[in-house]
Amino acid sequence: MKQYILPIVDKEGLAPVTVKQINSLEAVSTEILEHYIKLYEELALTKDEVAVLRGEKIRPAFKPSRMHEEAGKTEDNAENPSPGQRPGSQKKHKTAALKVDQDLIIAPTEPIPEGSRFKGYRDFVVQDIRITPFNTRYRLAHWQTPDGRHLVGKLPASLRGGHFGPTLVSNVLYQHHHCLVTQPLLHEQLQEWGISISAGQVDALLQNDKAIFHAEKDALLSTGLSLSSYVTVDDTGARHQGNNGYVTHIGNNLFAWFQSSTAKDRINFLELLCAGKTNYTVNEEALAYMTKQRLSHVFLDALSSHELVEFADKASWHAHLNALNMDAARYRRIATEGALLGSLKKLPIASNLAIISDDAGQFNILTHGLCWVHAERLIHKMLPLNERNRIDIAKVRSQIWDFYADLKSYKLNPEEQRKEELRTRFDEIFIQKTSYTSLDMLLKRLHKNKSELLLVLERPEIPLHTNGSEGDIRDHVRKRKVSGGTRSDTGRQCRDTFSSLKKTCRKLGVSFWDYLVDRISCSDHIPPLQDIMAQRLASA
User: CB–CB of 268/362 below 8 Å?
Assistant: First the structure.
């Protein structure tokens, strides 16, 4: 029999009493007890709903203990140990592969009796680091030739004309962009370490002479779009110069690319996808898009019949729209989106590139897929009006997650005969009628996105969610909370660049610290990240 801890009021106040104890009371019937338990559960559910409305977290669901399973496994392992192994032999010594820089022999403090035998050493490895200034004076030899010329020694390329070495510069970049240490704290830390540096010099180390990093970051997007079969996208807020702005993420399991902007509309997203090669082209793809978006036939005919079909920059394109007397903001937006899409189609992007998003309208271009987690979240956020509504929401959510598990199984083993079965189940889930009218309307709206939610049936390689983008962009959110916004355009560019390079290094298995030292010291032992990514995609 189940037992519940229920609060009942007695003469002295509240006291926990179990069901077993309550059943022993002859005055309490079974029907009253069951009704009381139901009321108690409804009260707990109401408290959770109030907590959600207040922006708080609900009580965690306590899962049953699995200690008996673990104990069973331990007993089984004890009874059937692996042949030739002793318990714990699979563990590795944590210090076995460490490089030992110094050996110190420590003799016993007690006198060693005569006749004792030496039995070797018991090693105890201690890891430590040394943080100390290391200043180098380069003495450039200066010679004057008989013909009056002056010959002077040149500084190493890794110094780039500055007074701070590559290790110090790499450390400043690593701590600021990877560890989110602010500039004032960096300045204070370097001074405490004995480095003579000003706050302005710290700012210069973080922003100046970063052209090689910006170029490598830009190459990531063009390479990724040309070789990848899909990308996931997301955006978040990013203040700049005291004004609200946005940062957009584009990436997949091999690269991450960030770009800040003042808007997050479809025009901005298309400009980002063009990867810096923004022009405006009126071709078949552009005209088809304009037709689908219901651009006026007068302007469609004017655009299609004009002798110029390609415009090099934004100024010439808008001048062309002005010449066509296209004054309506909506028509200009549709025409600009179509021209950018036509330009994008001319670039070397993957012909079957799929864009997976959270259903934000600006991302709905090319082959578009939707995130199942965001779709289910709409149902999860619904507040039931009564117990019947709560049961219906729980039932629908359970059906969706069961269906989601089957989609994951299909991705691993795509079979043609399962496609129709899954499509039919999708219809059964999202066309069903419940007691909750708002839930029915939401299911109907999600059903209209059937082709985007079931894109995985035709493209098993694409993900079912945008968790990758959500995780990648979280660093921008953390940095925004720590440092607020950026003040200079160069600072904003550096933030996007090093966020992109750091995340890409992590996805490719490259140490971000080693990458920074390699690039700043001009060692070039690590290939360009876009080349590593291209090799991974080719092998995959």
Answer: yes
